[in-house]
Design a protein that fits this description.
7-stranded antiparallel sheet, 222 residues, 6 helices
C-alpha cells in the first residue's frame, strides 16, 4: 500500500476552509511560499509570473483550503502560486458587513507606517474571474471591488527581497469599522472578534445594517 502523500492539505493540517467553517476565518495559511496544486502544496521554483495577475490576499484567500474550495466549486484549475510577502502601508480591518458565508471578513485600509506579512496569489484569467465573482466585483450590490495598488500606494516585497511595481487587492465597498476613536479596527480573526461583549456579538451577527454603523473609509478606490 502506498504511503499517504505528506504534501496534501489534510496531512499538513490546512484542509479547513472558512466557507465551510466560518469561525475558522481567515483560515490556516502556509508558513512559506508554496504552489497550491489542487489538494497539495508544492515548492515554488520562482516568485514572479508575468502571465498571471498578482493579487494580495488580505483575508481568507491566503488559506489554501479556501482557494481550493472556490476553484473546485467552479471546476477551475486549482494550481496557484502563493508567495509570502512583506507589505508596507496596508492594514487588515474589519469589513462593515457580514459575509453570506457567515463570517465578518477582513478588508484592507491605508495604514502609513504599517508592515504586515501577507500572501500574494498569482491568478490566471479564469481563476481571477472565479475570485472576482466570489467577492461580488461585477455586481452593483457586491461587497467588494478590486483595486490596483501601485508602488506609490504600498510597498510589496517578496520573500526574495524583490519589489513589485504593484498588486491588486479586494476592498470592501462599505469600508471598514473603526475602533471608536476614528481609526480602523484591525481584524484579529473571527473567534477573537466575536469574543467581546454580547452587544458586539449581536451587532456583528445581526446583518449588514448593524455592522455598517460606524464604518470608516479604507482609503483605496475600487
Amino acid at each position: 500500500m502506498a504511503e499517504p502523500d505528506p504534501r496534501t492539505l489534510e496531512a499538513l493540517g490546512l484542509a479547513e476552509a472558512p466557507r465551510e467553517h466560518p469561525l475558522s476565518y481567515p483560515g490556516a495559511r502556509p508558513e512559506e511560499s508554496v504552489l497550491l496544486d489542487g489538494d497539495r502544496l508544492l515548492p515554488l521554483t520562482r516568485r514572479v509570473y508575468e502571465d498571471r495577475v498578482p493579487v494580495l490576499a488580505v483575508g481568507s484567500d491566503a488559506c489554501p483550503a479556501q482557494l481550493r474550495h472556490k476553484m473546485a466549486q467552479s471546476g477551475v484549475s486549482g494550481t496557484i502560486p502563493m508567495v509570502k510577502t512583506r507589505v508596507f502601508g496596508l492594514g487588515a480591518g474589519v469589513s462593515a458587513h457580514v459575509s453570506p458565508m457567515g463570517y465578518v471578513s477582513a478588508s484592507p485600509f491605508h495604514a502609513p507606517g504599517a508592515v504586515d506579512e501577507l500572501f500574494l496569489t498569482w491568478l490566471d484569467a479564469t481563476q481571477l474571474a472565479v475570485v472576482d465573482a466570489s467577492e461580488g466585483v461585477a455586481v452593483a450590490e457586491g461587497a467588494y471591488g478590486r483595486a490596483w495598488l501601485s508602488a506609490s500606494d504600498v510597498r510589496v516585497e517578496l520573500d526574495t527581497g524583490e519589489l513589485l511595481p504593484g498588486a491588486h487587492v479586494y476592498v470592501n465597498r462599505r469600508g471598514v469599522l473603526h475602533n471608536g476613536s476614528g481609526s480602523p479596527r484591525p481584524h484579529p480573526g473571527e473567534r477573537p472578534l466575536l469574543a467581546g461583549s454580547p452587544r458586539r456579538r449581536r451587532a456583528l451577527c445581526s446583518g449588514n445594517r448593524a455592522v455598517g454603523r460606524g464604518g470608516a473609509h479604507h482609503g483605496f478606490r475600487a
